[in-house]
Amino acid sequence: MLPLTMPPLTLLQHLSGDVLALPIFKQEDSSLPPENETKNPPFQYVLCAATSPAVKLHDETLTYLNQGQSYEVRMLDNRKAGELPEITNKMVKSTVRVVFHDRRLQYTEHQQLEGWKWNRPGDRLLDIDIPMSVGIVEPKTHPSQLNAAEFLWDMDKRTSVFVQVHCISTEFTPRKHGGEKGVPFRIQIDTFAQGDSGDYTEHLHSASCQIKVFKPKGADRKQKTDREKMEKRTAQEKEKYQPSYDTTILSECSPWPDNAYVSTNQAATSSFTSTPLSTYTTSSVPDSPTASIQDAQKWLLKNRFSSYTRLFSHFSGSDLLKLTRDDLVQICGPADGIRLFNALKSRSVCPRLTVYVCQESPRESPLLERHSTSENGEHSISSSLRVYHALYLEELTAAELIRKMACVCSLPLGKINQVYRQGPTGIHILLSDQVSAHRHTQALCLSISTLKQYLRGSYPQR
Length: 462
What we know:
Shape: elongated
Domain Grh/CP2 DB: 39-276
Subcellular location: Nucleus
Number of helices: 12
Oligomer: single chain
CATH class of the largest domain: Mainly Beta
Strand content: 15-25%
Keywords: DNA-binding, Nucleus, Phosphoprotein, Transcription, Transcription regulation
Organism: Lates calcarifer
Distance between the termini: 108 Å
GO molecular function, one term: DNA-binding transcription activator activity, RNA polymerase II-specific
């Protein structure tokens, strides 16, 4: 007897061993589409392993696997009559892979898998048990793709592929004090049709499910523990959890990206080319959430994060700024993660010296303030408005000050030969590194009009 309530797109194993496709069905839902409008996926993949009973109703199923054990995945043709006629009586190709469920680990897939390869030389993360498999043709594994395998299969014949996952969930968990919680993986299958060129590049369907992998017999113990915990719960609490199904149905998902982990050399090579990095400041990304993907790549290279340009190859400035400290530590490791977080999120470093400059009228004295006497005899400063610009010096040198002033004045840097400051009794002191470094320089008010007069040759001679 079929249950009255079941999760979306759940397939129940019939007594005959076949799989029966059922739409969403809930007693309280009267707005279901007509039967002829229900859209079923063209393919269905069934992992013959039980789901955990300790999963809440609206969460994705979780399945426990034993390391190295062969598990059957049934490949089912679920097309309706007349659907996808172009692949009738033809082979299709499926690629099965084990990938990370955690988004942060997906960003560092290359580093994570390379680290696993280093610790487990000669091993693979995923294998096909060819002797036990049925109906598959030309199974292949590539030395550069340790987490994937592919095969051809005929939809008109019974097809089952047996897969073995050799990595365990705790191998990708930072070691602390023992008993660490393992990370979840996904088993994903992507199916393709043969294109005009003869290659299997026409994407047809993708589906995946969440798994955790334990050492041999560990999955059985974990399943038993979850079942015992659920038995201790009240009837009301049990209603919040899904029942445990004997098989796991892979749910539809997006195809796995083509630029996934392939090999050390290919993955580590950056195809990024750009204009000289000196044209970009180190603050272009932190100060600009609207920075483009190209600008973000340049900023990473400029700030010595070149090894992560591939990981963030699709990140704009806004995307980078949304990552938390924990995200970056997970992605880049503690050292580089904290360094990248500080570079992205930290406040600007306080300047060593601040100098204020103002625009003065050409008729005024270039270095001396103009004073006047009001009608009531009080001495006051001229009422002409002076707008000051703050120059923040990270280096206490004359060259740094001249460069910042040239930017404010909109003048070519090479045309400013000398800058003076007003000294005691109004004398002009040539600005040098020693003068720039003196702490009283921050009280100096330099005239922008002085520079312009100097360039025109009209600087007053004394």
